[in-house]
Amino acid sequence: MTVGIATKPPFGVYTPLVTFFAEDESIDFGAMESHVRRMAEAGVAGLVLQGSNGEAPHLDHEERQTVISKARAILDANGYNQVKLIVGCGAPSVRETVKYIAEANAAGADFALVLPPAYWAPAMTPAVVENFFGAVAEVTELPFLIYNFPTVTSGIDISSDCIIPLGQKYPGKIVGCKLTCGNLGKLQRVWSNLPEDDFAAFAGKSDFMLPGLVAGSNGVIAALANVVPRTHVQLLSLWRDGKVQEARQLQSKLSNADGALQKVGVAGVKAVVSHFFGYGTGKGRRPLGTASVGTLSEEIMGPITALVDLEKSSLA
């Protein structure tokens, strides 16, 4: 993809893919293939690789490139060439961020997703963060999205006052943002101040998917889509068809399940997928542990199970 003429990611559901590991902590590519195929068959617009759910900090450069190239190969071999790959490329320095982006580009990514630097958190003033994204945009080999997730960046919360000028200054290079922060006012401000055809502001959780769509979200990037991708696609269809009451009912199911899933961690997401769909395990790379559905309470599993039943009923 040529930087400078890039379009934004297409409207739709994007799954921030988990990374499955074998007992020796090597990547389980068999489980990965099953997962990628299930997502594509459900109708997602794209996959987000090496984000927070993908345990990006636990993968080395070579592993990241292999995951990207294998995901692209799996999609293409199964007739899903249109499914986009957004790849996490954030690092503490501009230099390594640019290197991650170059490697992702070579491996077959369509877009990058970039966190703000957070190692020297007290030094990361709004001006420093804005300069960081600008420096990356000046030399990037892929168009990228700004990733705002204060939980994993020492509390750094990127404001609309930062995102909007960057989108205006670097069209075709900075082409969107993922707002896991849940600030719908921010999403609305970004959507209303940047051209919708060129900039994609994404709600970053299932918990506020429908409110995000109302505020201008380009779909959703949501961890729960690892479990029930088809249900997320269904909500988008209801919204686009103007079936607001039906969409609200489905959103409440998504919100209840997402609230439960947020309590189990990344390994727990994998354990839930393994339990209901028969591939992979709940193993994380250390220091993350291994999760098991058997240890989860009914309070957690109840709303998730109800949603999985709905997902599977759509396949009947």
UniProtKB/TrEMBL annotation:
Keyword line: Lyase
Residues that bind pyruvate: 221
Cross-referenced InterPro entries: Aldolase_TIM, DapA-like
The keyword Lyase is assigned to this record: yes
Pfam families: DHDPS (PF00701)
Record carries keyword Nucleotide-binding: no
Molecular functions per Gene Ontology: 4-hydroxy-tetrahydrodipicolinate synthase activity
List of catalytic residues: 147, 178
Family designation: Belongs to the DapA family.
Protein name per its UniProtKB record: 4-hydroxy-2-oxoglutarate aldolase
Organism for this UniProt entry: Pestalotiopsis fici (strain W106-1 / CGMCC3.15140)
Phylogenetic placement of the source organism: Eukaryota, Fungi, Dikarya, Ascomycota, Pezizomycotina
